[in-house]
Write a structure and sequence with these properties.
Collagenase (Catalytic Domain); single chain; alpha/beta; 4-stranded mixed sheet; 5 helices; 138 residues
Length: 138
């Protein structure tokens, strides 16, 4: 089950978010796996980034894996993705991308992180970016 909690005033198509997350999970062989998606404002996003990553900027997306932090947790629950729509809107404008496309991209990025993908090395970054593009345009 995919749960969406929009704690902002930004109008978001929650069904589209669910469908995107379900599609990525299905294509990654994780059918039936659940996760939470939280949409938050810049103040909350920045506070979470500071607390969990020791960074002081407003992030566009954060991923929190529950399985690693809570032993014995139901394996069907991956974790939570936190999206900041206002930051995503700024990024979309900066790069000349439609907001909905940028939001979808950041959601896909977050889901891939929960599935264990990373971009710490150039090789990992290329593999993750290829997956993002495949899912974004499929």
């Amino acid at each position: 089950m995919i749960e969406v909690s929009n704690r902002t005033r930004v109008q978001i198509d929650e069904n589209a978010l669910r469908k995107t997350a379900e599609s990525v999970l299905r294509k990654e062989g994780k059918r039936g796996v659940g996760l939470s998606i939280a949409l938050v404002g810049p103040i909350e996003a920045k506070a979470l980034n500071k607390k969990h990553r020791k960074k002081s900027n407003v992030p566009n997306v954060l991923s929190f894996s529950l399985g690693k932090k809570m032993p014995g947790l139901n394996e069907a629950e991956l974790g939570e993705i936190v999206l900041c729509p206002l930051q995503i809107r700024k990024d979309a404008q900066k790069y000349g991308i439609l907001f909905d496309k940028q939001l979808t991209w950041m959601l896909i990025h977050g889901v891939l992180h929960l599935l264990g993908y990373d971009h710490a090395t150039d090789k990992e970054a290329r593999a993750m970016e290829q997956k993002e593009q495949d899912y974004l345009f499929s």
